[in-house]
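re: ur question from the group chat, yeah i did fold both. here u go
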Amino acid sequence: MLQNRATLVSVPPLHTTAIFASFLLVASPAVAGLLFDQIGGPSNLPPTGPEGFYRYGSQVFVGEPQFDLAALDDFTLRANARIQTVATVIAGYGAFNSYAAIQGFELRIFASPQAAASSSSNALAVRALGSASNFADFGTGKLVEFTLDQSIDLVAGTYWMTVQAVNSAPSNGQIGVVISDIGDNSSFQANPGGGFGIPGNLLARPVNFAYRLGGEVIPAPAVLSLFVAGPLVCRRRRQRR
């Protein structure tokens, strides 16, 4: 977790990810439900991890894009699928003051961590999720859930996702995604703007991030024509509190 902009962290070697069958999508045409879940229950979110942190920065820094951070974790679709919902568990740190002051959230899906580290514009799909209508206490943080105004259709394969809080720092500190004990303990943080001085703008992290994707398996002909080949943005109106 990057606690401040002066923090320098040694970079473990990059490595490929082994995907555990416990959270792989089972191909079952036209069946709606969970596609990927590393949130589980509150007891699946430990208070600390192998690096001594329970949250890692994942934030769009308003007005300071060089510091943008993406907490990246991989998910595998065993069949073509339509992503309709997303959830994550977040926690504030540093000079953090208020969850209500978070301006919104963004979902990005990448082909690889290296693509995310190179540029946020390399995302295969982008969805602006708007402001959360509720921050529910959940384990070590706050659970936020969204229904996409425009679903994301993907062919079977492995992808990397991040949910970033849109937050003004330093006035409201920093926001991180909390860790989970579900997964393969292989994730990354990307800082494509280079503001933190991380070599290659990418840090390997031996943890799992608390992400969940919901949707449905769809027949191959339907998704192949709609496969996201470049950035698509759908703006969701902010909900009134």
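okk and heres the other one u asked abt
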Amino acid sequence: MNAEVLNEYLPLFGNAALLTVWLGLAGIGLSIVIGLICSLVQFYKIPVARQIVRIYIELSRNTPLLIQLFFIYYGLPKIGIKTDPAVCGVVGLAFLGGSYMAETFRSGLEAVDKVHSESAFTLGLNKLQTFIYVILPQALSTSIPPFVANVIFLLKETSVFSAVSLMDLMFTAKDLIGLYYNTTESLFLLVVFYLIILLPVSLLGTYLEHKLGTPGVRQSIRKNAASRKERKTTIKEGVVNVGN
């Protein structure tokens, strides 16, 4: 591996990483908004809109992001809707991510025990107050692990943006390999920069899961751990007794 080549390529990969992160965050931000709206439609079983959301989720989750980008970038201009590569990337990522976020938030909302809502109504809270102060905090807390997994997944999916001529990390690596054949150096920097982007997200997600996870979930984890430890101790004692 040539150190001079690595130093020469570092600024190029740095600029590509900034573009990747910016597009990824923009797409993820939109996907959160879309996912929250769709999850509320499903949770409250709004007629007609619920069926539309279901169709959108199935269509989005069962088609690759690359195909979606091709449709937006090359297909929509045929009917007069033109987009530049950056807009295409953000819209495509939001379209894909919205369906995953919708299912994540929906599962979180449905995990909240109905007793909590009934207790809130008994205390005099209306439906909006109950949702904001009782249901939503618990749902978001429960949704942290799958939410972080979705964020990491969507950031990795930005690697297909190169298909619509965006100068992201993958495009930069393929371009340099094609021009100068420095495959090892290019792929090494590609892996390093993706780790720089994704590893902090993963660590932050683990921290949030431990700090903001619902008390019931944390208590269940502790009980399961204690139960496993107790079973191991019992088995060891049984083995010792048999040996004696």
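fwiw on the second one: The radius of gyration is 24 Å. The domain at 3-213 is CATH 1.10.3720.10 (MetI-like fold). idk if thats what u expected
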